[in-house]
Structures are given as C-alpha cells and as structure tokens.
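Summary for the steering committee. One of the milestones for this cycle was to obtain a three-dimensional model of the protein with 2-acetamido-2-deoxy-beta-D-glucopyranose bound, which we needed before selecting residues for the alanine scan. The sequence and ligand used are listed below.
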Amino acid sequence: MNLSNFIILGILFSSSSGGKNECYSCSGVCHNEPCNCQMGSCESNQCFIEKKPTEIPGSMKITKGCLRRSSRIHHGCEYDHFSDHILCVCQGHYCNDKVVMNTTRQKYARTITCRECSEKNPNCDSTCEGHWCHEDMSTGASGCGYGPPALPFYYRGPELFYYRSKVCITLSRGAGKPRRHCICSLNMCNQLNSPQNYHNYKDREKESGLKLRSLAMTSPDTNVPLQSCYNCETNTQDAAAMSHTTNCRSNRCMGHFCTYAAQRHTSKNSMGRSNMVHAVSELQGCMNVSDRNNIMLGCSKKWISDEYEEIHCACRGNLCNSDSLTAASSMLNGFHVLIPLLLSFFVLF
Ligand SMILES: *[C@@H]1O[C@H](CO)[C@@H](O)[C@H](O)[C@H]1NC(C)=O
Ligand SMILES: *[C@@H]1O[C@H](CO)[C@@H](O)[C@H](O)[C@H]1NC(C)=O
C-alpha cells in the first residue's frame, strides 16, 4: 500500500468521527490590517480562511467557511498558488479564527527562478522567483507558483516533488482540445523546449492537432488503465434549465481518471428556509497523468453557508464522473476491500 492510500484512509476515518464541529462562515472586504470576520457558521471538522486581493488596489477580500477532505496535505496558513493569495486550513471547532502567516513550512520553502511568459508572448525572456514553476503546454503560458505545489485533482503539498521534479496532467473537459499542464521544482524547469524551438513546436501543433503528448518530456504513467468518462460542460444561471442542457452527456473521453467539478451559488429565499440555487457550472472530463502518486481520489468540497459551494472529484471506473456522489462512492468501493484486508492483517499478527 502506498503513502497516498494511507493519507486517504486517515482522512476517511477522521472525517467520519465527530461531525459536531463548526466553522465561521463569512466574507468581507477590508482595506487595512487586521482583516477579519467572525460571523455565521457551517458544520464541518475542517475550516478555511482565504485572503486575496480585490479589484480595488490595496483592499483584500477575506472568506471563511467549511471544507470536507481538503486537498491540502498540511494544515496551517500558506500561499495559495499566487504570492498575494493566502489559504489557511485547520481542524477543530471554530479554528478559522484568524490568518496566521507563520507556519514553519513557509519559512523554509526554497525559492527558485522560473520562466514567466503570457499566452500572448510565450517566447519571452522574463523570469520570476517562486516556490515552484508552472506551464500550460497548450498555450505556452508559464510562471511561478507559491506555497504548496498545486495541480488540479492532486493533493497539495511538497510530497508532489518527492520522487519527480516534474508532474504533468492532460485534462479534457467538455468541448475543446485537451490541455496539458505541468508543474516542476527546479530552476527554469518550465521551458517547454528551448525558446528557439518553440515556434517549431507551435507550427507542428497546428499541423497535427494533438501532437502534444509525443513532445512532452515526462512520459505518461502507462500502468494506469484507461477509463471511459463523461466529457461535458454545463453552465446555467437557472437550476431548472439543467435538465435541458444535458445533450453533451452523450460525449465521452478516455483517460487514466475521470474528473468532476461543480460550483454552485446559492442563497436563502425570502422565507429563510430553503436554499435557492442561482448558478451552477459542472465540468466532467478525463485526466491523463505522468505520475499517479498523490492524486486525490474521491471528492473534496469547500463551502460558505447560503452562498457558495465547490466540489472537485477524481475517480476510477467507467463513467464514474456522472455526479459527485457516484465519484465519491467509486472511491469507497475500493476501500471496502481494503479495510477488511487491513483488519485481517491486525488479527493475524
Ligand atoms: C504564530 O505566531 C503567533 C504570535 O507570534 C504565536 O502565538 C503562534 O503560536 C505561532 N504559530 C505557529 C504555528 O508557529
Ligand atoms: C489519454 O491517453 C489515451 C491513450 O494514450 C488517449 O487515448 C486519450 O485520449 C488521452 N486522454 C486525454 C484526456 O488526453
């Protein structure tokens, strides 16, 4: 059994115990420190605080709420991909009290130099200093990442780079070509090819549509069998219209894992009783990976009461990404086998 299974097991057990814990659930904009809100509540063992800049220069938005199975491997306050975004994750009753930027991990994070180019000018000479580098191999955009290494549907933590210095995924989600993203941990590691080759690469990509994979420097993990998944994108302002927009449900893609992501904006109705759903977006698709360690199987959820929720799931099994319940239970099926196995192990010894 590998490390990620242990982590998942630990989370499974810890989230099934208790459940009476609450978190602050509020949001607000502030212009000066200290930036805080202490209102509202939602029920969960894991809480978060998020702090990011708003469109108005100098002002920050702070958001607090609940998490279920956070993708962050380590608790505490750390950068969230960007140098001006902070995400704190904690466990316990109203633990999301205030932002504290002094985890030991933060202090010892090594800084590296990365290429930093926009989609418009992917062949530029700019660099940045960050904790890890990223690149979008489909557009050529590149830059620096801060805090725990972050890749969609993976756990977030330095563990991602324990065995490899570069991890890549290819995501197909709804219409459009699959997109390839990579993150890496060495100086200037986000150079797709040497700069002078980039245009050749662009031309070849145009000619042959989907030649990205053959050019990728990280070979895919070929031990993972392919799954057939839903490949569908749904966006609606009106929940009732959902049933009419399911025509892409007949689209399929193949990949090592199926993925499901959803966002819902909700509010209490005037009677304050039931939740009204204002907008829903759902993305179902496929993911190929260069490294299957640290993929977060099952679903993680983040929510603010009566306002917002987002769900991210990865699963294995044909068409396991029809909805979040199916995606979450397809992971549990594997553990029904694993838990008796573990128990029999302890009985025997
Ligand atoms: C962070 O700093 C505060 C005040 O300096 C201290 O009380 C707290 O224990 C520190 N937390 C960590 C995780 O080091
Ligand atoms: C994943 O790889 C398989 C086999 O190479 C390919 O058929 C499939 O289209 C790929 N899926 C994505 C999302 O790139």
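Key point for the committee: Residues 170, 172, 178, 226, 253-255, 286, 288 surround 2-acetamido-2-deoxy-beta-D-glucopyranose (ligand 2) (CB under 6 Å).
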